[in-house]
Amino acid sequence: MDRSRIMRPAVLLAVITIFSLMLLGRIFAAQTKKAETSQPSPTSAPALNTEAIRQALEEAQSKMQGTAEGTPSEPETSGVETPVFEAKATPEEEHATYLALQEKKMQEERQVLEALKKELKDEIAKLETLRADIDKRMADEDEATKKKLSKLVKIYEAMRPDELVPVLDKLDDELRLQVLSRMKQKVVSQILVKMDPAKAAVISEKLMSKKAK
After folding, report:
1. CA-wise closest residue to 34 among 43, 44, 25, 47
2. Please, are residues 162 and 187 in contact by the beta-carbon 8 Å criterion?
3. For the chain, what is the total number of helices (H) and then of strands (E)?
4. Which of 19, 45, 70, 81 could form a disulfide with 60 if both were Cys (CB 3.0 to 4.6 A apart)?
């Protein structure tokens, strides 16, 4: 609490008391002078006019109250809110914000790339597994084909050349070449003698090329 507000009633009371004493002094002096002029008896004391004293006190209090009421009061705080101004970001703060946004964008892009990389790695693994499976199946099929071809060669070798030539003429070129390349050289020469000379020359050339590889 402000000390000036606490001291004001005490000062006001002191001023009222001083004014009251001054008025009482004046009244007492006036009564004494009046008694002296009227020549009262020596034994009688001057009588105070209590009604005049009461009126003087009321008059002093009224004047002091008016003075106190006329004292300007302290200004009260207005109810209007103080406007709040938003602080503008400095260039350094704007630059820091821009860098933070760029870093966040790059991090998101890295996450997308990592996800794509993982997806691609999974697809490659699937393709590798599929290729291994295909290679195995082809190897199994080649092995089965070789076994079948070996059996067929044995059958053809057991036949007479003049009986085998019409059978070989009905086979496709690749299969006929595969059969003859697995047969014994003596049997092949006997077969070629029984075949058409032009066809026998072509087959011989292909057999030579296959063996050279």
Report:
1. 47
2. no
3. 7, 0
4. 19
Decide if 54 contacts 18 (C-beta within 8 A). no
Give residue 42's pLDDT: 43
Mean pLDDT of residues grouped by 10 in the chain (213 residues)?
54 69 71 57 49 67 57 49 64 88 93 93 92 88 86 90 90 89 89 89 86 61
Contact call for residues 57 and 20 (beta carbons, < 8 A): yes
- Tokens describing residue 202: 């072509």
Q: What is the amino acid identity at position 81?
A: E
The DSSP output letter for 159 is: S
Q: Which residues of 63-81 are buried (b: 16+ CB within 10 A; e: fewer)?
A: ebeeeeeeeeeeeeeeeee
Phi, psi for residue 44 in degrees, rounded to 5:
-95, 135
Round to whole Å and give the CA distance between 155 and 46: 177
Give the CA radius of gyration of the chain: 68
Which two tokens mark 161?
């050349």
Please name which of 199, 153, 201, 193 lies closest in space to residue 175, comparing C-alpha atoms: 153
CA distance 10 to 15: 9
H or E segment and range at residue 76: none
- Are 207 and 192 a contacting pair, CB within 8 Å? no
Convert the pLDDT of each residue in 80-95 to its tens digit.
Answer: 555 555 667 788 888 8
